[in-house]
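Thread amino acids onto this structure.
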């Protein structure tokens, strides 16, 4: 009996699905960076201009924190 006869014929190769949306999104970012646009130090968002802290204009708690703003709901010790 020959066992190697079936060895070459593999079942189906695992399906590889390119995540088009994600790729498009990243390409868009790369384009913007190549255009010389800055990106947020925190979230990587490409913007036309950064604020003094090198951040985009988002106002999430993290962004506020980086700007040194008091974050509501977060108790400040000291
Ligand atoms: Zn940001």
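Threaded sequence (78 positions):
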């Amino acid at each position: 009996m020959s066992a190697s006869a079936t060895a070459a014929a593999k079942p189906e190769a695992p399906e590889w699905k390119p995540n088009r949306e994600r790729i498009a999104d990243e390409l868009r970012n790369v384009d913007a960076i190549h255009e010389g646009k800055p990106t947020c130090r925190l979230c990587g968002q490409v913007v036309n201009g950064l604020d003094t802290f090198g951040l985009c204009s988002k106002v999430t708690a993290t962004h506020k924190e980086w700007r040194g703003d008091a974050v509501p709901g977060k108790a400040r010790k000291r």
